[in-house]
Amino acid sequence: MYEYFDGVVTLITPGYIVLEAGGIGYKIYSPVPYAYHEGDKARVWVEQVVRDTGITLYGFRSQQDKGLFMKLNQVSGIGPKSALAIMAAQDNGALASAIENGEVKYLTRFPGIGKKTASQIVLDLKGKMGAYVGENLFNEYEDQPKAAEAVTPELHDALLALAALGYTQKELDRITPKLAKLTGLSADDYTRKGLALLLKKA
C-alpha cells in the first residue's frame, strides 16, 4: 500500500523509529534504527505486513534494501524479525554471495536461523541475488586506535539494538570488551562493528 514516507524522525529505539509525516507518527521497525537521527528529515522506504495480530510497518534507507527484505520475508520459515536481523549486518554483498554459493554455515550465524532455514534460504533465493553481489560492509573504523574500555551511551544503545535482533547476553558479553576499545563511534557504527564481530568466522 505504501512505498515510502518523507518525514521527520521524532524517536529512535533499539528496534524501531517513529517518523512523523503529515501530522501522524508512524512506528516503523528498522534493521538499523541508529542510522537515523532524531530531528532529521528522512525518506523511509516501507513495507506493510498484515497479520492476524495486527499491521506492522518495516522501514529501510533505500529501495534496494526494501527489496531484499521482501525477498527474505518470502522464504518459508523466515519472518520479518529474522529478515531484519539478517539485514542488520548491512553487508548485502556478503549475504548475496553466501546465498549464491550455497554457504549454509554462514547463514546460520544469524539469530534464529538454523541449518534447515538456512538451506531453505539458499533453495528459494539462489540465482536471484545478483543485484546485491559486490555491495560491501561499511568498515571505516576497522583500524580505529584502541582506548580504555568503557561502555559509552552509544555502545549501550548499540548493545540494546543487538539484543532486540535476537542475540543472547552471552554473545553480547563476548564482543563488548572489543567494542569498548573503539572510540568516537555512533550507536549505528557500534552496531555495525558488533554485527561484524558476531558474524566473524571463528
Biggest sheet layout: 5 strands, mixed, barrel
- Mean pLDDT level: 87
Number of domains: 3
- Percentage of helical residues? 25-40%
Radius of gyration: 17 Å
What proportion of the residues form beta strands (DSSP E)?
15-25%
Element order, helices and strands?
Answer: EEEEEHHHHHHHH
CATH architecture of the largest domain: Orthogonal Bundle
**Number of DSSP helical runs:** 8
Between the first and last Cα atoms, what is the distance in angstroms? 43 Å
Under CATH, the homologous superfamily of the largest domain reads: 5' to 3' exonuclease, C-terminal subdomain
Number of strands: 5
Content-based structural category:
alpha+beta
CATH fold descriptor of the largest domain: DNA polymerase, domain 1
CATH class of the largest domain: Mainly Alpha
Strand order of the largest sheet: 1-2-3-5-4
Unreliable parts: 137-148
General form: globular
Protein name: Holliday junction branch migration complex subunit RuvA
GO molecular function: ATP binding; four-way junction DNA binding; four-way junction helicase activity; hydrolase activity
Region (Domain III): 150-202
Main location: cytoplasm
